[in-house]
Amino acid sequence: MGQGSRIVSARRLFLAGAIGLALWLGATFLWHVTYRQGISLAVILLLDQDFPALLGSLLLLALAAPWAEGKGIALPRPTARIVVPLIVLLGMAAWGGHYALFQDYAISRDEEVARFAAAYMREGLFARPIPVEWEPYRRAIMPEFFSPFGAADYWTAAYLPVNSAIQALFWQLGDPNLAGPALLMAGLFALWRVALHLMPDRPDAVWVTVLLGFSSSQLWVTAMTPYAMTGHFALNMVWLALVLRGGVVGHITAGLVALIAAGLHQWHFPPIFIAPFILWMLLARRWTVAAFHALTLVAIVVIWAKLWPGFLMHALGAPADVRPSAGVADKVGSLFQRLGDRWQPLVNLTRYVAWNNILMVPLAMLGIAAMRWRTMIRGQEIALPLALGCLAGSLLALAQGYGWGFRYAHGFIGPFCLLAGLGWARFRPQGALRPLLIGLVITGLASSFLVWRTHVFVEPYAASHRLIDSSEADVVLVDPRGGLYVTDLVRGRNGVPGKPMVMNLGMLTLEQVDMLCQSYVVELFDRAEFRPLGVPLARWNLGRMDALRAHMKEEGCDRPVQPPLPETFEDALNAADNAM
Length: 580
Hints:
This protein has about 575 residues and is mainly α. The chain has 24 helices and five strands. The strands form two sheets. Strands 4-3-5 form a three-stranded parallel β-sheet. A two-stranded antiparallel sheet has the order 1-2. The longest helix is centred in the last third of the chain and has 36 residues, at about 435-470. This is MFS transporter. Keywords: Membrane, Transmembrane, Transmembrane helix.
């Protein structure tokens, strides 16, 4: 301790963070690797990206502990003139990162479906009509994440429409990939405004809050993608800023923001964020405000779980192919089933820590410790709903598949940063920012490593998509056996299925393959093509597909995907890498 019992020394903060992280990391490795509790995609990414980054970070944190205390740097007051340009620069970096890091490619099925819906919304449609000639093959073309309503005649995304609608709007303005960066900027701006409201007399704590958000790799890398989670971060922070502003206008506008946020992709995310604040309002005896926001939660369920599916049924037709899964009972039942089957807190929260500032969690724990119990039960501690939300977001550690960090807790990065700022304001001397500077340097080094490993992981899939997209065949059949998540390469161009029409071979019958081979120019994309491009190996054997491939060979319908012939001699030299 430093000046009295209220000050927590940076040395102790660093050592506590390093020890806690080492214990958590050790438990994660033992559970998921040593005892092999299922080698999922999350564990693959953990070993390739997060484990090395965190190991290096905790070592640097421990080594830096003896020199952590002190002023370090003097920052000016966090005014709009300084903070807003930084936010704009970060948004521009996220936009460029979509092309530089992700190579203009959305790797997961979730992202592709969001872009698919944005494409038909941009055309003024609620769904994409399936061309009659492709109806028998509709499930091989759209293998998963499709809405059941009118599914025999329409392709419709399974997710709610707001995230795709935002992308469609930016598409009309020039580039759908601007949607994520714009939402990131809105969320960071709101985070800054909330920090100013909560800590007006501690500009250093405001800087801590804002810089923890700025340095979150999860925030700005996810903003490079079509994931809806950037929208959840942004609208959660905007909602909180409006609630703290207060007044009739502030609360009504916050209610509208909550309704929009619930329609981003799944309606249950905003209620998890908002419910602790309703408790906080009740503790403060703000009955009217609490009732209004409780009614907002009811409206969320009515609009997005009842009226929206009813609208789709009326507009598109009765459910087909699969049962509807948008109802309240279905959603709650699915959530509890996944908590039982796919709850993985160790690996998911490890990924969350790795992709955020190394000091975010230790400082957030100080924010929780800063609460005074007597004022808390009177609803005077904003840290209470922030902490309850962070706890809920962390406990809902369901398997996410792809994700840069842990995206199901993405909407709680803002609350974590605010708790960290509150903890700093309570337990750290004003202006002693050296530990923040050291944390930013360590986080920057870890982020550089994570970005590099992400590029290495995405590159083979982006190259595979480009090869498929360059085919001049009518149909490309993807045989995913032998490759990790090759099924996600079944997609159209910019969200629109077309020539070549890409299909999952494993979802076709022998008769369907014969019809395709007789009626269209067909090419195959299998391990012979994707392995040289670097797609990771995976054990996946289907005897039925062996027979299917043997039959295609007999029929002469197994020509591999070939890029188009070069049009000029110079193009030929470039294609041959100037070997001549």
